[in-house]
Amino acid sequence: MFFEESQLLKGLPSQFFATLVQKVNQKIAAGNDVINLGQGNPDQPTFDYIVKALQKEAAKPQNHKYSQFRGMHSLKQAAADFYQKHYQVKLDPEKEIAILGGSKIGLVELPWALMNTGENLLLPDPGYPDYLSGVALGKVNYSTFPLKKENNFLPDYAEIPAADAQKAKFIYLNYPNNPTGAVVNREFWAETVAFAQKYQLGVVSDFAYGALGFEGYKNPSFLQAPGAKEVGVEFYTFSKTFNMAGWRIAFAAGNASMIEAINLIQDHLFVSVFPAIQAAGVTALTAADEEKEVARLVAIYEERRNAFIKAAAQIGWKAFVPGGTFYAWMPVPEGYTSESFADICLEKANVAVAPGRGFGARGDGYVRIGLLVSPARLIEAVERIGKLNLFEK
Ligand SMILES: Cc1ncc(COP(=O)(O)O)c(C=O)c1O
């Protein structure tokens, strides 16, 4: 018997990067030495002190039972303390924090939990593709606002058409930004709160790369802006700060009514995260080594960024220098689209890059480079691309 997918599933956006992954895997299977810069998966292991905590917690029988609904209080308290310590933001652990099995699920379920069919969302272009999965599952509409190079890939609120802002119920923002590597300052978050108040819309700050700022830059949290909790929430994931992408753990923090809606939908979908992972999450956030380990990780990415940008400049490939994240957003040469350039890099240079088109129409002049291999491999990748002679020096 063949069972047809529901209309809801059929309405989901196609997974743009699935074909890229297939092509890369075919190349590797054929014996080629492919340098894969197309992904966003942290390559370093989870910090040792966190792995050790999980080993201990996994052995405790009380952690083998169902988790408490809505997650463990100790983790919510640790998340609140973490925000107090790093951002001087005070949060009520029970009312203003929700535990999530990764921030992806929170970002995708938010429209479902807080919007009605046909209501509108404002999304960045380029942006993290999974926001559109939330649009489809929530059966909501969306309009985009451009992140332009001339504005350092920040939105220009004055340029967002009033009609789009008026009808929007929420805006999604992501700084440090995937895919561009752009970062923002505290004034930007203050402007964001003013924009939200003016149009009475909610803010969803995706702070996935919050810990990753270069040259000593400490990325500000949206929640640091006065009035932020009145208008929105922030998603914080363990995936990038602590190299815990496979563990699936994150939290949302901020506006109590939004947190309650997120908790409520989760009551119906999940019984929260494996308790041992939550307990190890407490250790991740509170251990004495936390800051030292994160600083070590940031230094690794910064060394890679510098090596890549320098090598790229030598072949005439000019970068927008990322202020954070582990990505570089690179323009494609004259005469290429993001896909045709990604294809030639893979075919002729055995280098996989992510075509910008996968992040939205405005991504088309770019490819995203994941700084997730060693400086030597990054330099080799640039040299291979340099041999194609596509850039003017
Ligand atoms: C911008 C952005 N937001 C959210 C996520 C999801 O992170 P996770 O579900 O691992 O918390 C990612 C992952 O790559 C991301 O790049």
From TrEMBL:
Segments forming domain Aminotransferase class I/classII large: 33-385
Span-the-membrane segments of this chain are none
Q: Which InterPro entries match?
A: Aminotransferase_I/II_large, LL-DAP_aminotransferase, PyrdxlP-dep_Trfase, PyrdxlP-dep_Trfase_major, PyrdxlP-dep_Trfase_small
Could you cite one Gene Ontology molecular function of this protein?
pyridoxal phosphate binding
Q: Which cofactor does it need?
A: pyridoxal 5'-phosphate
Arranged from A to Z, the UniProt key words for this protein are:
Aminotransferase, Transferase
Family annotation (CDD domains): AAT_like
Any Pfam family: Aminotran_1_2
What is the designated name of this protein?
Transaminase
In which organism is this protein found? Liquorilactobacillus satsumensis DSM 16230 = JCM 12392
